[in-house]
Amino acid sequence: MKTYLGIDVGSISTNLVLIDGEDNVLFDIYIRTDGNPIRAVKQGLKMLADVFPRESEVAGVATTGSARYLTGVITGADLVKNEITTHAKASSFFVPDVRTVLEIGGQDSKIIVLENGVAVDFAMNTLCAAGCGAFLDAQASRLKIPIEEFGGIALTSKAPTNIAGRCTIFAESDMIHKQQMGHSIEDIINGLCYSLVRNYLSNVAKGKNIQSPVVFQGGVSENVGIRKAFEKELGKEIIIPKYNKVMGAFGAALLIRENPPQKSKFLGFETADKEIKCGSFQCKGCPNQCDVIEAKIDNEVVARWGDKCGKWSNLAIDKQ
């Protein structure tokens, strides 16, 4: 059986999705990146190797996410795609007539506008993590509440407190102030959900024509408080698709399954047991002084990138 692997490595989570030739998900894995994408990818490959079907082969690998180039090098990916393309692909699979995709991850958020399954407009917020998963995790930890219970507690609120949500520092300061004023935890949490949604709509989604069907995905889509806040602010039904937490990886797997290589460059699951290191050096060849990234597997250089002229990256290509 031929299978196809999608890998999405972001700042907070690393996701792997393995599908068969008919787009059925065989396995999906969601783990924390914990600031070390190489270790997270190796962990994911080990987990997948333990359950990988016998008499099967990986016929194609695609990577996406903020660490997509690095992941592509250390796994031998056949395709490297941006998050907009992979998330749009995955959402269209589950909701063929989807018009708007709301995606909130660990440290960034995005909106994608689609027509006939094709992304025609998008916007991203990568400058501030206000309203993203990392900020919600931090607040849940500060309040000593499991993040899994955050949204449920918000729904018990009767009068959400107004919280400043434009900046993570101001939002946290405002939450502490409201606690000291005597507001209940559930009202503060619910107020935070509404504040973050309004911040998303006024910044990331500013000027975008949000039309139904609206799909909400990414790790934060697990938060029912955020979901309800979106529905109330937009006055529209919010659809949470299956595999909502790993949609980037699923979309990547779909793309490589549609256009598979004649022979995959996948380095195999044994890559998880090899020593993988990345470093950088500054090229002195011209005034640009590019910072060149160098990847090694078992002390052998497998790729270099980051130079503008190709002096170093082409060496790696020639070697292959």
Automatic annotation (TrEMBL):
InterPro entries: ATPase_BadF, ATPase_NBD, CoA_E_activase_dom, Dehydratase_Activator_Redct. GO terms for molecular function: iron-sulfur cluster binding; metal ion binding. Its cofactor is [4Fe-4S] cluster. The keyword Nucleotidyltransferase does not apply. Keywords: Iron, Iron-sulfur, Metal-binding. Residues 5-255 form the ATPase BadF/BadG/BcrA/BcrD type domain. It holds the Pfam family BcrAD_BadFG. The keyword Iron applies. This is 2-hydroxyglutaryl-CoA dehydratase. It comes from Candidatus Nealsonbacteria bacterium CG23_combo_of_CG06-09_8_20_14_all_39_17. The lineage of its organism: Bacteria, Candidatus Nealsoniibacteriota.
